Amino acid sequence: MDLLCIREQTAMLALAVGEFIRSERRVFKAEYAEQKALHDLVSYVDHTSEKKLIEQLKKILPQAGFINEESGRMHENSEWVWVVDPLDGTTNFVHGIPHYCISIGLLHQGVPVVGVVYDVAINELYTAVKGQGSTLNNKKIKVSEQDDIRKSLIGTGFPVNRFERLDAYLEVLRKAILESRGVRRIGTAALDLCYVAAGRFEAFYEIGLNIWDVAAGVLIVQEAGGKITDFKGGENYLEGREIIASNGLIHPLMLAWLGAV
Q1: Torsion, CA 187, CA 188, CA 189, CA 191, rounded to 10
Q2: What is the rounded average pLDDT of the residues 179-185?
């Protein structure tokens, strides 16, 4: 299987669908959005983008199954599985905040092997192939070498459900605010992970995520030299709904903070 060729085709597809999203944003009105849950929005742009992506991804790898945010799971027990979030950061999109992206991951026997994340608003394309490194707009990227939490910028996200863990989660936020250089919440986990890979964040953590939020981004972090675990230091981060991504150097501290959440 030529994974480099698959990455290139997938990247070109993300750019094409990103142009559709950009064009729709120019005419989009907030009332077009629908509410899936209290803090979870969706729109025709999500649905149409996902349809376009699936249609072309089937041509790139016909034997693959799918795990999609909007249309669900199809043949997910296949050897190859696409994991698609057609518009990560829908709430940002709806409100005109320029932080939203397309996230496409390819799993082989459950392991991410290709990742593509396209930041539509600012035209940044992140890609990775297992064993081949990570790129931003075709230039190699790597994680930060900062090992001092006082000089580290931390990314996070706030849960849209699972509020029974909120108090413990907010205590970690308090520690991050007091001890790090600062905390950022940009509203799209896929881009948060890419920011770790590019050395913009030293770490990112969040609970309540789904596999389509992280499948592409985790590979991009790993191939940039970073570390990914769940809150206990294990490997249940794709479906476990919790993740720590870091440059590796401050990972032990992040585990100490989050182990009890």
Answers
A1: -120
A2: 97
